[in-house]
Amino acid sequence: MRSLLAASAASAFVRSSASPLRPPLFALPFRPQLSSTRFCAARPVSAAAAKSRGGGAGCSEMEDRAVHSGEIHVIVGPMFAGKTTALLRRVQAEADTGRTLALIKSDKDNRYGLDSVVTHDGTKMACWALPELSSFQDKLGAEAYNKVDVIGIDEAQFFDDLRDFCCKAADRDGKIVIVAGLDGDYKRNKFGSVLDIIPLADSVTKLTARCELCGRRAFFTLRKTGDTKTELIGGADVYMPVCRQHYLDGQIVIEATRIVLDLERSTVTSDVK
Questions:
Q1: pTM listed for this prediction
Q2: Given this model, what pLDDT does residue 101 score?
């Protein structure tokens, strides 16, 4: 096993020094002093990469199974909780150990452009913007996909095929998949397929924000507008993080406002007639 890890580290260095495939695929220099980073000890590199590095015939059955197993890590929370920041930190930690990574986000999120995953404070990293995750391997190409060790997924609630993709990437292909997304919508109902991958996950991190109205921990997202569709892309102009009490108070205010506006509209319509 020790020789296997040494071989993996050495070939990771060789791979990272090669010319990059294309911008959204990252291969950063191997740093021996960071080899004990939280994920590095958990598993070697991806199944395809490990196989090409001589980890086949010489391994015991248990070692071979460990090499080929992937991981799924889920980061959830309300808006403005720092989910994207946490995602970028974790994939960067993986890249710092010499692993190759790729980032994906939904093409529905065009607030900061389509070519980058961007935090609310402006930190960014190049990514693939896709309508569904199933198209990722075809977009990247089979050879490049096999070299990817870590896949980061931002705004995961917008992908209907999230569960299938994570199963295949981690269970079949041996990838580390790190997922960030909203666990609930503005009504506190399940949002997309993020909760469906909780049973598959190696770890789940629930982040909180700070309530804009009282400063306490915020667990929920309050929509400021009267729009009722579930998917409504927006930032601080549309949403705010709130604690439980201010979520409930806010819903009362929003509902009262809606009733008043409906009455005003019906009055105007009657006057016109």
A1: 0.70
A2: 92
